[in-house]
């Protein structure tokens, strides 16, 4: 696309604040760079905290609503579902109609969505609230990275992205700790109130500090492509989650067909649209698409590991919600400490080396979980697993996001930021869905085998067997009704959960190994990467 369509409207429309931002951006950073970056990170923090707070509350939610493991999986992934399904379309709307407007609207909508989740009368309403919260984040979250891309340049941009990435990942890891603190003094719904004061502050600061109309586009938005992107991503995530539920497999099959059709239709539309929502020419650039795939696996690994890990430490090890949150704290600490070093490694050795180093630590994290996270495991092994994952995500997160933003024209900043968000949210949604499906299937299979091994299966009603096999919380409820057999039931449930999480961690190892192979063979070495990025800038006229 020619750059003459690109509207530079920072002066007249944004006022003196917008003009100052653009002038600063030419020097590598906007005016009041620290305050602007802090505001954007605060908006991202609201999204990232909401992404992970549900994990710590899942056992309590299951007990409150007698939820199945499949419903718990959907509640956990609902926020990611709403965000991942909408982020491409809403990012494009921000590029066209105003990133600042989308930032403020999304952060404002997060407030009633959080309130609805906190006071949900049923797990179905809670799921709806989580999806709406994800849609709110779909408005605000992609805008944060798009604005960093538009306002910062050169080494300053790499450092800003490193801090944005580190704090974002750290907030996702800190969510369980903050949620555990809330649950130690309040009820499970309080975890969804955590972000309310932060959201209010973020709205105020965004209105006062964030420049408006910087490097936005005047092109029309591809609304048809936007609708297809929502269908494509939403159907994919739902199909994966429902496939392990015996009563929902037909629906999962239909959704799978819809997802495939959505992918085909979306690609067809983007090739023919005069103003594509997602520029497939840019997406085909090697630096872009390999980094996109790499980030999906890395950030998905973090979300999936926390999702299963938080249930493991509460259900199997018997930790309280607060203890479960504390045990994941090293992941957040290492993400904050390592991310600045990651930016240095990217500048010195390139994205490929830094990505591979991050993948190595993610692989070691899943290996630790697979081999050591058993019923009698000590706290050191749990800390080790989360720590290794934190280091891996910190190392790989910065190059994964920076390679995206560095390989697209500035007018396509929304596309790059939306893809970076998809790395986190689609990766998190898909890998959580896969892990949840494997956990559900493995748990149900092991529990059914345990029931059969007693030789008394014929004496146990179908309803009781269904309750035992649907989730760990279901087994706890049965145990409470049969105190004479409570110990045996809980022990069988723990064993079944461990069987299911073995399947999940094995999938994590396979995914990380596959991602490392893609990066090793297909991502350019440092010298070639620099040449490609220079060629992209020349082609785009940036």
Keywords:
disordered N terminus, 2 domains, mainly alpha, 542 residues, Growth Hormone, Chain: A
Explain the overall architecture:
This protein is mainly α. The protein folds into two domains: about 425 residues, Growth Hormone, Chain: A; about 55 residues. About 80% of the residues lie in helices and about 0% in strands. The protein has 20 helices and no strands. Helix 3 packs antiparallel against helix 16 and helix 6 runs antiparallel to helix 13. The protein is globular, with a radius of gyration of 23 Å. The two termini are about 10 Å apart. The N terminus is likely disordered.
- Helix/strand structural class: mainly alpha
**CATH topology label of the largest domain:** Growth Hormone, Chain: A
- N→C terminal distance: 12 Å
Total beta-strand segments: 0
Uncertain parts: 1-27
Number of helices: 20
The CATH architecture designation of the largest domain is Up-down Bundle
> Largest sheet, if any?
none
Oligomer status: single chain
CATH superfamily of the largest domain: MFS general substrate transporter like domains
CATH class of the largest domain: Mainly Alpha
Bin the helical content.
over 70%
Rg over CA atoms: 23 Å
Number of structural domains: 2
Would you tell me the overall average pLDDT?
81
In percent, how much strand structure appears in the residues?
under 5%
Write down the secondary-structure element order.
HHHHHHHHHHHHHHHHHHHH
């Amino acid at each position: 696309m020619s750059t003459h369509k690109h509207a530079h409207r920072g002066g007249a429309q944004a006022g003196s604040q917008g003009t100052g931002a653009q002038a600063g951006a030419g020097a590598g950073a906007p005016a009041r760079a620290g305050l602007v970056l802090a505001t954007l990170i605060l908006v991202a923090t609201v999204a990232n905290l909401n992404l992970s707070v549900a994990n710590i509350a899942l056992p309590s939610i299951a007990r409150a609503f007698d939820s199945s493991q499949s419903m718990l999986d959907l509640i956990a992934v609902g926020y990611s579902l709403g965000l991942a399904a909408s982020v491409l379309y809403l990012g494009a709307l921000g590029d066209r109609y105003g990133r600042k407007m989308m930032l403020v609207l999304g952060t404002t909508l997060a407030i009633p969505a959080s309130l609805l989740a906190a006071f949900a009368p049923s797990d179905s309403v809670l799921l709806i609230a989580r999806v709406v919260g994800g849609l709110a984040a779909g408005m605000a979250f992609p805008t944060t990275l798009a604005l960093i891309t538009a306002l910062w340049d050169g080494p300053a941009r790499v450092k800003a992205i490193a801090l944005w990435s580190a704090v974002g990942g750290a907030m996702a890891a800190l969510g369980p700790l903050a949620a555990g603190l809330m649950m130690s003094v309040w009820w499970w719904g309080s975890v969804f109130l955590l972000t309310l004061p932060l959201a209010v502050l973020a709205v105020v600061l965004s209105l006062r500090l964030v420049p408006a109309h910087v490097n936005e586009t005047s092109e029309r938005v591809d609304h048809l492509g936007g609708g297809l992107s929502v269908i494509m991503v939403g159907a994919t995530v739902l199909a994966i989650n429902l496939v392990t539920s015996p009563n929902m497999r037909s629906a999962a099959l239909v959704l799978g067909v819809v997802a495939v059709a959505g992918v085909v239709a979306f690609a067809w539309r983007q090739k023919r649209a005069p103003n594509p929502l997602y520029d497939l020419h840019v997406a085909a650039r090697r630096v872009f698409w390999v980094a996109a795939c790499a980030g999906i696996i890395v950030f998905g690994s973090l979300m999936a590991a926390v999702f299963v890990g938080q249930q493991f430490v509460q259900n199997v090890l018997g930790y309280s919600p607060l203890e479960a949150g504390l045990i994941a704290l090293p992941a957040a600490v290492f993400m904050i400490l390592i991310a600045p070093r990651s930016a240095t490694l990217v500048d010195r050795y390139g994205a490929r080396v830094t990505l591979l180093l991050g993948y190595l630590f993610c692989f070691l994290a899943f290996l630790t979980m697979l081999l050591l996270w058993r019923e009698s495991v000590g706290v050191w092994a749990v800390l080790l697993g989360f720590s290794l994952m934190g280091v891996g995500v910190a190392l790989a997160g910065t190059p994964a996001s920076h390679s995206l933003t560095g390989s697209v024209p500035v007018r396509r900043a929304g596309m790059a930021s939306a893809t970076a968000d998809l790395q986190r949210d689609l990766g998190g949604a898909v890998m959580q869905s896969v892990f949840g499906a494997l956990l559900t299937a493995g748990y149900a299979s092991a529990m059914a085998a345990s029931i059969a091994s007693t030789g008394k299966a014929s004496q146990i009603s179908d309803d009781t067997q269904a309750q035992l096999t649907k989730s760990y919380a279901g087994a706890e409820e049965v145990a409470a009704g049969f105190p004479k057999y409570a110990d045996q039931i809980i022990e069988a449930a723990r064993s079944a959960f461990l069987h299911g999480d073995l399947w999940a961690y094995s999938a994590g190892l396979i995914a990380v190994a596959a991602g490392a192979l893609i990066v090793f063979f297909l991502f350019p070495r440092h010298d070639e990467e620099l040449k490609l990025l220079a060629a992209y800038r020349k082609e785009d006229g940036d």
